[in-house]
Structure prediction request, 288 residues.
Amino acid sequence: MIQSITSQGLVLYNRNFREDDKLVKIFTEQVGKRMFFVKHAGQSKLAPVIQPLVLARFLLRINDDGLSYIEDYHEVMTFPKINSDLFVMAYATYVAALADASLQDNQQDAPLFAFLQKTLELMEAGLDYQVLTNIFEIQILTRFGISLNFNECVFCHRVGQAFDFSFKYGACLCPEHYHEDEKRCHLNPNIPYLLNQFQAINFETLETISLKSEIKQELRQFMDQIYEEYVGIHLKSKKFIDSLADWGQLLKRGRQMKKIAVDAMGGDYAPQAIVEGVNQALAGFFRY
Prediction:
């Protein structure tokens, strides 16, 4: 059955198909994730809107028994701030990949689409992309069949305690019940508290959020443990995020090298060819 629809959609990725064609995966609000065929993509009018992390209202021809087609588009949003920052783009790509992994193809999930769209909009608006990612991760766990309670002790059900987490029980322990699991996580009590808050946060009302770098690092480490223990997926986009600390050090070191080189050659008056040469050398740090 083939039908024509108009739907909001977010491009998840594209890949080459034959010589000049592409297969484009789009998460649509109305019909879930679908694979679309774009012929002669390089010369197509669709070329600007089949790039990853492009949001648009698409006119689509949906084929339930094969590849679907994009007929037209309007109301395009390209998230320029996300795409201009390597670190933000990496996290945005990861949450999109996580949404992709949590949902079967051709299955409608308008709430998940809205959640992903709002996450990207908040990243674009400049809110902390690392914390937004943690919130997305903890709230999307239910789509992997995982439900965790960070609000109370699994034994006495008391709330408001300095909780730790136990993978043995899949729940929190209060101080009086720490002894129940010798291999408990020994978390900073702020981590279960924040995750309990994150589970209830509504992005529609979120205007600002800020955490210390040490807390964000602890959150990242614990979320990695949760996903390894309960979900077991290993996304390429997450591996790239894990490498960003090294990239950050290279970037910092590269900027220092550039300043030293330019200063040694006359500062602001250094020949343009020399400055360009330094820039080219630094670019080598970031080649895949």
